[in-house]
Amino acid sequence: MKLETLRPAAGLAAAALGLGLSLGPPRFTWANAGLQIAHPPAQGLAALAGALALGLSVAGRSPRALRIAGLAVAAVLATFGGQRLAWRLDALEAGVVERRLTGTTRLPWGKIDRVDSRPAEIEVAGRDGTRLRIATGGFPLEDRARLERTISRRVRETTQAATPAVR
User: Fold this and answer.
1) Which segments of the chain does DSSP mark as H helices, in order?
2) Mean pLDDT of the chain
3) C-alpha to C-alpha distance for 164 and 104, rounded to whole angstroms
4) What DSSP character marks residue 107?
5) Mean pLDDT value of segment 75-82
6) Residue 91: which H helix or E strand, with range?
């Protein structure tokens, strides 16, 4: 068997390995001021390396359908890796900030209307209609609970501080 015929299979194996290494949970950094959640850079880089390996292994290959399918899978894996590198959630003094590959959403504590908890996500809704959906499916249970408590506590503290005391 020629080495050239094994190239697409090796690329697919590298892509599967890259995907497997990129699927870990995010890292939680807790501080007095709040928390920061982000995926370790190695996760995003693993997905990008797998995408590159797959793309290179099918480039210039025939049949054309194999090349197109391989490059499409590589593009999806590269996008996933980029999202892993770009995504970060901060719940600090100013409010909740989520950074994604497609942009940044900011919700100051005083502008948050409600916090809804669902089995696989926490939704933070602003008074202006802005919604932040935090996918929590891969979070360790204790960290998810702490995140939910942190956001709810900050919203409650801001609401109480804005409401004048009645005497």
Assistant:
1) 3-22, 41-58, 64-86, 141-162
2) 89
3) 33
4) E
5) 96
6) strand 88-92
Both tokens of 160, joined, read 């109480």
Per 3-state DSSP, the chain is made up of helix, strand and coil in percentages (nearest 5) of 50, 25, 20
> Which tokens is 80 given?
């996933």
123 neighbors 147 (Cβ within 8 angstroms): no
Q: Quote the tokens at residue 42.
A: 């190695």
pTM for the whole structure: 0.82
Distance CA 93, CA 78 (A): 33
- Give long-range contacts, CB 8 A cutoff, 24+ apart: 26-29: 26/87, 26/138, 26/139, 28/143, 28/146, 28/147
Tens digit of each residue's pLDDT (9 = 90 or more) over 106-132: 999 999 988 999 989 999 999 999 999
Helix 41-58 vs helix 3-22: crossing angle, to nearest 10:
160
Residue ranges of domains in the chain: 1-26+40-86, 89-161
3-class SS of residue 27: strand
Of residues 43, 58, 62, 33, the one with CA closest to residue 154: 33
Q: Give me the phi and psi of 61, to 5 degrees please.
A: -85, 155
**Scanning the structure block, which residue is given the tokens 């090796």?**
10
